[in-house]
From TrEMBL:
<feature type="signal peptide">
    <location>
        <begin position="1"/>
        <end position="18"/>
    </location>
</feature>
<protein>
    <submittedName>
        <fullName>Peptidoglycan/xylan/chitin deacetylase, PgdA/CDA1 family</fullName>
    </submittedName>
</protein>
<dbReference type="InterPro" id="IPR002509">
    <property type="entry name" value="NODB_dom"/>
</dbReference>
<dbReference type="InterPro" id="IPR011330">
    <property type="entry name" value="Glyco_hydro/deAcase_b/a-brl"/>
</dbReference>
<dbReference type="GO" id="GO:0005975">
    <property type="term" value="P:carbohydrate metabolic process"/>
</dbReference>
<keyword id="KW-0732">Signal</keyword>
<dbReference type="GO" id="GO:0016810">
    <property type="term" value="F:hydrolase activity, acting on carbon-nitrogen (but not peptide) bonds"/>
</dbReference>
<feature type="domain" description="NodB homology">
    <location>
        <begin position="97"/>
        <end position="277"/>
    </location>
</feature>
<dbReference type="InterPro" id="IPR050248">
    <property type="entry name" value="Polysacc_deacetylase_ArnD"/>
</dbReference>
<dbReference type="Pfam" id="PF01522">
    <property type="entry name" value="Polysacc_deac_1"/>
</dbReference>
<feature type="region of interest" description="Disordered">
    <location>
        <begin position="24"/>
        <end position="67"/>
    </location>
</feature>
Amino acid sequence: MKRTLATLFLASSLILTACDTSDAEYDTDEQTEPIEDNSDDTSEGSADMNEDNDTNEDTDDEDELIDEPEESSYLYEVNENDIATIQVIEGEEANERVALLTYDDAPDNYAVDIAEVLVENDAPAIFFVNGMFIESEEGQAMLREIHEMGFAIGNHTHTHQSLPSLSEEEQTEEIMKTSDLIEEIIGERPRFFRAPFGQNTDHVKELVKEDGMVLMNWTYGYDWESGYMEAEPLADIMVNTELLRPGANLLMHDRSWTLEATPQIIEGLREKEYELVDPDLIRSVTPEQSESEETD
Ligand SMILES: [Zn+2]
């Protein structure tokens, strides 16, 4: 009896929602995945057509499929011994042949344009932000725009100094000021940290971890070197360097030639069968950390 009632209720609510959603479509295209949307539509449609007990089980199966990515939202991590490399978390099933796109010293002049190009090419990336660039309203608007386009935001310190040359107090200020500002503007703290020039200290490492960020250097980058401050040679080396390997972390900057080279870099990496890894899938907190958070 209970079951029939539940099925009836389910069936009727399915009919209602099927009517509603078919017109409403999916406005929240944070991640434009037309294939997923289609499968959603057909599942509701078919449940609608056979209103018998079977539909209950059908929709349960469907739910499991949809829920799966949420149960294990992190599939990748930064290799602890080589903080440039992205690797699949042990025990998770994910593509190892990935590359991560990162853009530092943002948002200065070209970051929003770069983000737009990435969106056009359906390519995820991290933008590492210098706090000093987001003190102005203009900078804040740019950051907001990049965040709203769905990109991960990282902390690249406030004024881009060599951290080991600063006192611990100053190092803290350089990092926390930027995370606080980012949080004020986009409503969430950054999960990724990259030190200027890749120079970290023990104090920085501890601080970054405490604040729930993961340290990240890079595997290679060229857009600041003479000979590569032009789109053609830059795109070529970013794709054809011997340093490209699964898990590579590609460093680029808020520069005009990098903006221009980005579509070719994406295309070249994909031709070599690299998947561009979604930063949302990269774990920032260690398992020990999340456990202690739960018990606190
Ligand atoms: Zn930098």
